Amino acid sequence: MLEKPFFKNLSSTASSFALLTLVIIMYIALCAEADIYVPAFPRMIDSFGVRENQIQLILSINFAGLCIAGLAAGPLSDSYGRRKILLAGLLLFVIGSAGCVCAADFNTMLFWRLIQGIAASVPMVVGCAVIVDKYPPEKTSQLIGILNSVISAAMAGAPIAGAWISQAFNWRANFIVILGLALISFIGTFLFIEETLPFVKRKKFNMLSICKDYIKITKSLDFICYTLISMFPFTVIVVYIANLSVILINHMGMSLEYFSYYQATTMGTFIIFSLASVKFINRKGVDFTQNLGGILALIGSTGIFYVSQTNPSNINFICVFMAFIAGGGALMVGTFGMKALSIFPSMNGTATAMATAFRQLLAAGLVILSEVLFDGTIVPVAMIIFGYAVVASICYSLTYCRKPRTVEVQSS
Q1: Residue-averaged pLDDT of the chain
Q2: Helices 12-35 and 82-102, interaxial angle, to 10°?
Q3: Residues 209-239: b if buried by 16+ CB within 10 A, e if exposed
Q4: Rounded to whole angstroms, how far apart are CA atoms 123 and 45?
Q5: Do residues 147 and 23 make contact, with C-beta atoms less than 8 angstroms apart?
Q6: Is pLDDT of 258 > 90?
């Protein structure tokens, strides 16, 4: 039963429809799991009786869980099959989500958020692998593009939905929504999704070999630099979102509903520029597009740092400069990310897992840093954003005059 779905004899069209629908639902759940509850941070602070700078741990510990399990999910599915690992991850996701709904104290919530993050990494990695297994490269590229749009739309819409849900019910209702999506994903996978990796293509699980591959990847300066650049928009937006609700609602007196629109402008801009990036690349080329994105992101980073030092309560200017960062980031994230992966053409899966884990770990670390520096204003967030922009600029300078080496690595 773990190798085959409950409904085994679906037509090819029905099977494809079920797979794509369920993967989209999974990704919506994963995105909602990341930030739907963020507008409710002020209410969660009151409910758990914690300090303002502690509440971001709910976000950072989840990213730590994503990082921990993300490195193992891909290799495990390569060895034991996609369906078994996906079902196991989704079941744990359901359990973790239920734990978040019922958590009575802050430490218990943190525990279940860690479990939720560990579980969420499985469909994040394996869901994409199932599509790669099932469809030819051209079709896969189109479907991955659709999934990226779904991710952007879900991350933009989740805070607005979370604000409305929190206002109409309470903060726990956000986690009930995640639990519902997790249940749909698990039941749908059990009923409809078939195994896409045949036994003959499975690899023997060798932890030592996997570790060696990861070490080889991290030794590449080009990979590290391109990955750091590509992660810039995601990471700084996460830090910004993690702090914004407490700053605007608790310290500036903004209503929960009004706040959600300020937050959504960032991801809305990201979506618009993500769609425009395809046309930019077709008309102007990859280099022009990524360089334009880098310039816009640098303008936004410098601008938000300047405003934080001169007029930190001017939320309109802050949002405008964050829109520059989001728009510029959307133009550069894909191109620099592909440059990083192209360095290891024979081990794209391992490199992707490494980049994803690196992203989650960096996001967790910077959110924790913002928690330590939190003072009720945008100043610490702006300092982190500007500092990362400087690091990304140095990385760009290091790779600009170098022709990145293509490294062929065969797993032992």
Answers
A1: 83
A2: 40
A3: ebeebbebbeebebbbbbbbbbbbbbbbbbb
A4: 30
A5: yes
A6: no
Residue count of the chain: 412
Across residues 224-236, what is the average pLDDT?
Answer: 87
CA distances (Å), 110 to each of 2, 64, 118, 146, 241, in order? 31, 11, 12, 32, 19
Distance, CA of 248 to CA of 376 (rounded, Å): 9
What pLDDT does 177 receive? 94
Q: Which of 60, 22, 399, 23 is CA-nearest to residue 241?
A: 60
Per-residue pLDDT tens over the stretch 309-358:
999 888 889 989 999 998 898 888 777 877 787 787 666 667 777 877 88
Provide the pLDDT for residue 33.
84
Contacts of 222 (CB under 8 A, 6+ apart): 339, 340, 343, 399, 402, 404, 405
Provide the whole-model pTM.
Answer: 0.76
| Backbone region of residue 311 per phi and psi (left: phi > 0; alpha: psi in -120 to 50; beta: other values) | beta
pLDDT band of residue 393 (cuts 50, 70, 90) is: very high
Which residue is listed with tokens 């390569």?
78
Residue with token string 């930030």: 35
Return d(Cα 127, Cα 110) in angstroms, integer: 26
Using an 8 Å Cβ cutoff, are 240 and 266 in contact? Answer: yes
Residue among 271, 263, 323 nearest 153 (CA): 271
Alpha-carbon distance 256 to 156, whole Å? 16
Nearby residues of 217 by Cβ (< 8 Å), 6 or more positions away: 223, 344, 347, 350, 351, 354, 409
Q: Copy the structure tokens of residue 351.
A: 């490199």
- pLDDT tens per residue, range 127-148: 877 887 788 766 766 676 667 6
User: Mind giving me the DSSP string for 83-100?
Assistant: HHHHHHHHHHHHHHHHHH
Say how far apart CA 29 and CA 179 lie, in whole Å: 9
Which sign does the torsion angle of CA 257, 261, 267, 272 carry?
A: positive
Is-contact 273 326, C-beta < 8 A? yes
Number of helices (H), then strands (E), in the chain: 14, 0
Q: How far apart are CA 153 and CA 145, in angstroms?
A: 12
